[in-house]
Amino acid sequence: MTMKRLMSWIAPVLIATTMLVACGDDKDDTATPTGGAQAAPDQVNVLAGINDPTDLNVAVTEFLPEAVTIAAGKSVEWKISGPEPHSVTFTADGKPPAVADEKLFPPTPPTGPYNGKTLVNSGLVPLGPGAPAPFKITFPTAGKYTYYCVIHPNMTGTVTVVDANGKVDTQAEVTARATQEQSQWIAEGKAAKKKLVETPPAVDKAADGTSTYKLLMGATTPHTDILAFTPPPAALKAGDKVTFLNTSEAPHTASFAGKTTLPQDPTSPAVAAPAPGPSPQTLNADAFFNSGLLPPNAGPPGSIPPEAARSFTFVVRTAGTYTFVCILHVTSGMAGVLKTA
Ligand SMILES: [Cu+2]
After folding, report:
1. What long-range pairs does 32-39 form, CB within 8 A, spacing at least 24?
2. Which residues constitute the domain of residue 311?
């Protein structure tokens, strides 16, 4: 895929995201204070993650706001605007789901008011271009309900449901907290992005005069994922190697389309499989080369994949220009170019 085509795919997403943000306040503020007791809003609106509208590489992996309080019988509606996908997942036992459990990628919509004892799940959205529908749940019973995003383990939220006379949030309060949290997490992400893109690739020089460069794939902070690569080596020459290493807490691919078309569905087996085979692979400008899914540098103690499992090496035998993307995060602008000097 050329960079121009890549941008033509990203641009509509960027515009859509910006519009969503711009329109973020046209919600029903049903609870307008009128001097006396204040009516509980029928619905409050929560954002499930957001990419920084000014830099899609910075994805906030938090619900905005993280906690809301509503009255029994009222609803919460989540907007999952992407482009980084998220889910709103309430599990049957209230515990976090297994990270990236593919069984939870399709939706399990609510069949009525939610009692906190079944799986209710938006599924992973959006997957690829296209506007996802909002996801809404009504809570008839007082209690505290914790929910999760199936692919971002640090992303949890709560809905506290209170009986009559309990203090509940107005939409204005929900929006104010969401805005405050969003700006705090975006600042955190911007600093991490700056550090990532200002880190030149580590280089290992061999006796034969060739170099192996190590490019990092993404970065993770407590509240964000950075969907970018470290910059490509400026002195790259024919004969050198480039190793992509995932040190972030999200899965990524390094994928060269050449003259082919990249798989469009991020869940397709072609995305997960190394192509045309295991590391290392010698690039040419025509064919499809893919690291396959490189797992996150995360997991329960003792189960974090070793560096070899999180990396893939391409040999640049022929001088030229080679464009690559992460197929999972191309809509967040995760792309780069290897160009021989
Ligand atoms: Cu990625």
Report:
1. 33/170, 38/170
2. 199-339
